[in-house]
Amino acid sequence: TYDPVTNLVYIGTGNGAPWPAEVRSPGGGDNLFTASIVALDADTGEYRWHYQTTPEDSWDFDNTQQLVTADLMIDGKMTHVLMQAPKNGVFYVLEAETGRVISADLFVPTANWMTGFDENYRPILNPDANYGAFGDRGFHVVPSAGGAHSWHPMAFSPDTGYMYIPTNYGSFPLVAEAGAKMGNQLLSINVGKSPQMPAPQLEGGGSYLLAWDPVKREPVWEQRMGSSRAGVMATAGNLVFQASGSNFQAFRADTGEAVWSADTQSGIVGGAASYELDGEQYVAVVAGQGGGRGGYWAPNYARLLVYKIGGEAVLPEPISFTPPVLNPPANFGDAEMLATGETHYNANCASCHGDSGRVSSLFPDLKYAAALNSPELFKAIVIDGILQSNGMVSFRNELSDADAEAVRAYVVTLANDLKDNPPPAPAFGGPGGPPPAPAPAPAPELHED
Q: Percentage of residues in the chain with pLDDT exceeding 90?
């Protein structure tokens, strides 16, 4: 972020890897300048100041979330500040010129990676959260490694004085294992293992849109129709726009009341933009995440959608599609082979196709892959790279033929488990058919000035 008032450029920095500080830096140390805010002179690039939000980070708490400047009345004095709500769950208000911390408060109900702050606003780390020192014991970090606020843009309204934050309150299991990989990332965590203690029970956990008052240092409202996984835009018309999945919505900025929504047929993750043309206000947003209504095989309806008061355009009807059939072969392989397959799957496949077969991206769900029925075809894809032109590269340098067959055995067990324990049918009428057409949405109450 460039600030013309101070002529400084503010940079949020990433976290270290491997993730466990005990593995990454066994001798200790803060790992300066990871997980920090760094201010540089815009003319010379000279270092001016820094503040490290998460020293000795072990929890994937990168600090790259938006850095917002504003003028706030604090203790009766108008103060030019820099604000950030990073993954670690703390909302920071800093003096923009000097980096002096004015306030640092949890914007989620609890966090267990720290116990508080010292007199210099350095977080006091929880010794129990140093899971890298405890072998297989592990730790469930709160907030989760996905972040109390991830990369999705937050928004500040100078009219209400509130910051609107896509928020997630949850935990994440972490077990250290030096040398363990997630895909090609040397993170030294074993995603196939769980901590020995149960996950914490979090009252009020989940994903929501939060309005935060940076002056009073407290939440104003939360909207559970909102999301932690979509960007936010605030307008001068007392509206906040955000999507939740394929539902694009507007809420009152002062109260959080839902006032408008529109089905977009596809997921939205970025923030919207507003502009004026010939005296009319428009709101534009990009949809196209897909995956929510049929996964990899469904149309993703990637579109730029533009709304205005009185807009009459109607989306085309959803397209029917035929998803693949879950048809794995019988389970095969002994316990040792399956354990080998799980290890290699987590190290080489999980970052795209999901851990334990749970797909969290737009890559195909391997449990439905026809190649599971043919060891020759599976090898041709995984080892020989016959689908490289489609983006599936060869893993010849990482896996032997026997390793690839062990991965196939492991995925077959996941597929058969899903076949024997199917999830509830989708609410829109089962696989293969599109969801019913939504009811017409009311015209958005956009700012007309």
A: 80
Decide if pLDDT at 441 tops 90.
no
Domain boundaries, the chain: 2-229, 335-420
Whether residue 3 lies in the annotated active site: no
* Spatial separation of the C-alpha atoms in residues 207 and 3, rounded to whole Å: 31
pLDDT score of 357 more than 80: no
Are the beta carbons of 244 and 228 closer than 8 angstroms? no
The pLDDT tens digits of the residues spanning 81-128 come to 999 999 999 999 999 999 999 999 999 999 999 999 999 999 999 999
Rounded to whole angstroms, the Cα distance separating 118 from 330 reads 58
Backbone angles phi, psi at 404, to 5 degrees: -60, -40
**Tokens standing for residue 111:** 């966090």
* Range 2-229 has CATH code 2.140.10.10: yes
**CATH code for the domain defined by 335-420:** 1.10.760.10
Tokens of 308: 């205005």
Q: State how far the Cα of 341 lies from the Cα of 344, in Å rounded to an integer.
A: 5
β-bridge mates for residue 164, sequence order: 155, 211
Amino acid at the residue 303: R
The active-site residue, picked from 3, 57, 60, 365, is 60
Cα–Cα distance measured from residue 375 to residue 381, given in angstroms and rounded to the nearest whole number: 10
d(CA 22, CA 284): 46
Task: Answer whether 101's CB lies under 8 Å from 92's CB.
Answer: yes
State how far Cα 384 lies from the chain centre: 33
Residue count of the chain: 449
| Cβ proximity of 344 and 351 under 8 Å | no
Distance CA 199, CA 19 (A): 20
Closest CA to 81 of 215, 212, 253: 215
Q: Which residues contact 169 (CB under 8 A, 6 or more apart)?
A: 108, 109, 142, 143, 148, 202, 204, 205, 206, 208
Direct distance between the N- and C-terminal alpha carbons of the chain, in angstroms, rounded to an integer: 28
SS (H, E, C) 272-286: CEEEEECCEEEEEEE
Count of helix runs (H) and strand runs (E) in the chain: 5, 25
Q: Considering the entire predicted model, what is its pTM?
A: 0.84
Does residue 428 carry a pLDDT above 60? no
**Averaged pLDDT, 291-319:** 85
The span from the CA of 360 to the CA of 352, in Å, is: 8
